[in-house]
Amino acid sequence: MTALPPVGEVALAALLALWLLRAFFGPPPHQTDRVAAAGWMAAGLLLLGTVLLAGDAARPRDLLCAMAVVAVSTAGWWLRGRTEEGEGGAGKTDEGDPPPDWGEFDRLRAGWSRPKVPSA
Fold this sequence. Notes:
The protein is mainly alpha-helical. It contains four helices and no strands. The chain is 60% helix and 0% strand. The longest helix has 21 residues, at 58-78. Residues 88-92 have low confidence and may be disordered.
């Protein structure tokens, strides 16, 4: 078998470009899912491993490589989950609330005190 026809190569390249653009710049999933990302990554690596088994046939190698790119980019998409604010989580971590400012707390607490009044 020979390589894909030129029209097929252009169509495959366009599909891969659209898939990568969606994975990087499209809306992220509702939450990060590391298990799904690991599954897609494993699938991508297995697909790349099967390229070695394809032998000299160029068409299956091209399609297997394309499927591997799709799988790995989908794994990256699953890792982009949304944060609590609803934005993409690229480069962000859920660290929770910042630590309390105890100096400000002590200043506010000093304003709460009242003069001592003897009980009757």
